[in-house]
Amino acid sequence: MALVPLIAMGWVALQAVGDHPAAAVCDSVADFATRELPGLNGELVLLSMAGFIGTLGSAIASPLVDTAGIDLSSIPAALLLVGVFWLVPITGQIGMNPILAVSLIGPLLPSPEVLGIAPVAMVSAITSDWALSGVTSPFTASVLLIAAYGNVSPALVAWRWNGGYVMTVGAVVSLLICALVTV
Q1: Which regions span the lipid bilayer (predicted)?
Q2: R_g over Cα of the chain
Q3: Which residues fall within 8 angstroms of residue 134, CB to CB, at 6 or more apart?
Q4: Looking at the whole model, is its pTM more than 0.85?
């Protein structure tokens, strides 16, 4: 992620080969900072608040789950992790940001040791569902940004442009999670 701005500046400079590359980069950066970035204030607030709300929500939900006697460790690990993997993109369809969903659901899960699995299996499930939700939910910042730049609806980006990708990758990653649990 840290290299993306450098790659973008290099791309702008390459497009201005006949002109003045340094001036093109400066103009592009200035335009982004003064015109585009201020127009994205809603998306930036969404990103920053999602983690805060999820962390606060999990702190409230954890004692409630314990009091209700819900024992997620009784569910087979593969089923639990594949379920969580698909749950996060589903929550994205109703407007829950993946940062919010993961920071809310993650702390409620039993530890990998309790489930008898390697930590890499749980981390893979959680990071994969986050990535999948990021491209399939019309409410995520990444989809909102692409839709804004393309002047199309977020639903078109999330479901039509990314739908086949999500189903294919989702099936493959579900199998991968099952394989990681059995290792």
Answers
A1: 45-65, 77-94, 139-159, 165-182
A2: 20
A3: 92, 98, 140, 142, 143
A4: no
